[in-house]
Amino acid sequence: MIAAFYLLMLVGFVGSYDVFYWHWYRLQLFRLRDARHENLTHAFRALLFAVMILTVMHVDARGMWWPLYPVLLGLEVTNTLTDVVLEPHSRKKIGGLPPQEYIIHIFLSLMTGGALASVVWGTRSLMAEPSYLGLRTIAVSGLARSGAYLSAVAAVGMFFFELAGVFRLSRQVRTERSGNEQYDKVISPVSSTSVGQGQR
After folding, report:
1. How many helices (H) does the chain have, and how many strands (E)?
2. What share of the chain has pLDDT > 70, as a percent?
């Protein structure tokens, strides 16, 4: 758990740079309509990070509760793969994924996967113990714990920011589509009338 904790702390630090600098400052993905589905994976990743860091710090799952650890790993892998699939379309109008950000994404995926895999491997013996789900605190310094709590709070804030952006972009798309449909309804009768008058 200690190794997983510090790996996730590193992920939180580098991931914050990726979000603040690349996603929000340089590319402004929260303004890009084509990126709204990708932004949804970013929102879930932020929430997953908060859950993961707090789980590693405090959750003691044994017996029938032990699968909580691999479930977290599965959710993270699924969300990451979805993000990878969506990125080519999301970033097409802005020239694709910058090479520097691509390297950051590979690093974050490896570190997060490594952290969760170490949790699953390191706690596998707990599967055979009596079922128990409780709280405990891993042996890290108070400063490290404080940093982890701040990271979790920041991640939850990012989740709500990304989610609000997704809803706003989706609403814009729906409004635009509705306007186009109304335009088509108005234009079609006018066009038909014009054709009829031309035939007469």
Report:
1. 5, 2
2. 89
Q: What's the N-to-C CA distance of the chain in angstroms?
A: 83
What is the rounded CA–CA span in Å between residue 97 and residue 103? 10
Confidence (pTM): 0.85
Residue 90 has which token pair? Answer: 């999301």
User: Domain spans of the chain?
Assistant: 2-162
Q: Which two tokens stand for residue 63?
A: 């017996």
pLDDT at 198 over 60: no
Is residue 185 predicted with pLDDT exceeding 90? no
Extract the tokens encoding 162: 């990304």
Cβ atoms within 10 Å of 187's Cβ, excluding its own:
10
With b meaning 16 or more CB within 10 Å and e meaning fewer, what string describes 168-181?
A: ebeeeeeeeeeeee
